[in-house]
Specification:
single chain, 335 residues, alpha+beta, BirA Bifunctional Protein, domain 2, 2 domains, two-stranded antiparallel ribbon, rod-shaped, binds 3,4-dihydroxyphenylalanine
Length: 335
């Protein structure tokens, strides 16, 4: 009987090495110490044994049972440990970030500009990037001998079609199509055969504005641009109107904002002047109204045009225009 018990214990020792799951441990528990196990059968034989045999075998039987129980428990915790480390959720680990991208800084800037004007009641219009000479030049009172007409200053697609060199073309398109009053904002790409450097690109973006109604005055233009500049760059920004020339507006002005870097004190960004030029504007030239069959005695209006890259560079402190177009993820992911 003692031999039998020892054999059972040996078998158990072998079996337990191979157990890898809580289920196999449970099977072993039933097999070795369950009600129908060999050890249980042996216990049942005890009444037939002599008291000497009982004492000897009983002790071995108890030790054997205890050892099996302990080893099953030990193995169980071992298995639990390894399986929890594999399946457990580590709540301290960083969440996996989904790379969903972000809006391009130029899109953001363009959206911001458009949104300010929409809040003032402007509607958005878009024109074609390939345009006629009429929409790009003649309609806007840019005479034949104007330097911008030169082949070298404009990308021509064929003899009389070109890539628009400004979004002022959309003024013509809108006015050709509809009668006043007009209050429109017109964002889009424009093209110029400029050599690429830190501040020039052969393709860039502009936002054009056009207001046509009765009795529109220069003060309306000033008020509108003031609201725009303050919303775009902050309440403490000042505007400066400098007399200028554009064939399609009369009078015309170039408009500066007080330098947003140094607040007008003078720094490298504003070349020590305290001012940054941000747009061109003026009162729509009556000749332009005539070109689109509007009665210049009846209608007045103002127009303005601004470069989106320039505004984005000022807003974000970007010093090289090429960064917008290089698709450098490290640059773009900052926005
Ligand atoms: N089209 C001009 C340019 O590209 C910008 C401009 C100036 C637009 C004055 C206007 C304006 O509408 O009135 O330089």
């Amino acid at each position: 009987m003692v031999e039998k018990i020892k054999k059972i214990q040996q078998d158990f020792e072998k079996d337990i090495q191979a157990a890898t799951s809580p289920e196999s441990l449970e099977e072993m528990r039933i097999k070795y110490i369950g009600r129908k196990s060999e050890l249980a059968a042996i216990s049942k034989m005890f009444p037939t044994l002599s008291s000497e045999e009982k004492a000897q075998a009983g002790q071995i039987l108890n030790v054997c049972k205890k050892t099996i129980e302990q080893e099953l428990d030990k193995k169980k915790t071992e298995i639990q440990k390894t399986s929890t480390s594999k399946d457990a959720i580590d709540v301290t680990i960083d969440a996996i970030k989904k790379n969903i991208g972000s809006l391009h800084p130029l899109t953001k800037t363009m959206d911001a500009i458009v949104e300010i004007f929409m809040s003032l009641g402007y509607r958005v219009a878009e024109g074609n990037e390939i345009e006629t000479e009429f929409a790009n030049f003649e309609g806007l009172n840019i005479p034949l001998d104007h330097p911008a007409r030169d082949d070298f200053d404009t990308f021509y697609v064929d003899k009389d079609r070109l890539l628009r060199s400004h979004t002022s073309t959309v003024q013509i398109r809108v006015m050709e199509k509809q009668a006043p009053p007009i209050q429109m904002i017109m964002p889009g790409r424009v093209y110029r055969p400029d050599a690429v450097d830190a501040t020039h690109s052969f393709m860039f973006h502009q936002v054009e504005g056009l207001m046509v109604n009765k009795n529109i005055r220069f003060s309306d233009l000033k008020g509108t641009l003031n609201i725009f500049a303050k919303q775009m760059f902050g309440d403490d920004v000042k505007l400066r109107f400098r007399p200028s020339f554009f064939p399609f507006t009369e009078p015309s002005a170039e408009i500066d904002v007080s330098c947003i870097m140094c607040k007008g004190k003078g720094c490298r960004v504003c070349s020590q002047t305290g001012w940054l030029e941000i747009l061109g504007a003026g009162m729509v030239n009556p000749k332009v109204f005539k070109n689109v069959d509007y009665d210049p005695d009846k209608w007045t209006g103002f127009a303005f045009g601004m470069g989106v890259e320039r505004i984005a560079m000022l807003k974000y402190g970007i010093t090289d225009i090429r960064l917008f177009f290089e698709n450098n993820k490290q640059f773009l992911s900052q926005f």
